[in-house]
Amino acid sequence: MGYSVSNPGLTQHLRVAATPFAVSQIAEKAAIVSLQNFPQVVERVQMLVDERTRVAAGLRDLGWTVPDAQGNFVWLALGAESTRFADLAAARALSVRAFPGDGVRVSIGEQEANTRFLQLCADYTKPSGPS
Q: Going by C-beta distance under 8 Å and a sequence separation of 6 or more, which residues neighbour residue 70?
């Protein structure tokens, strides 16, 4: 769901590039139900923010450098170690997205999985230098 508030000159180009009927009926219904249950949506968003804060603080307590995030993930700048770290995560039934040579994006999920992720980070022997 979304909208654009823009200059008419820009809007004409957006309309050309936009996929017609890009929102499915199910997605539209979900958006409507979310708006009808706004307090529960806010509560769930706050739970996500709290969990992201817990994970980021836990990583920092372990000595990791973690950028401040506003999304539902944390970033570990592992460089050349990204793929190795992702493999270790997979061995612990954790799904992370590796960007080889850059880092690893870890989505904030259920508390139990996030706790296992923090344990992996505690056990991980990272190379010297900033994470």
A: none
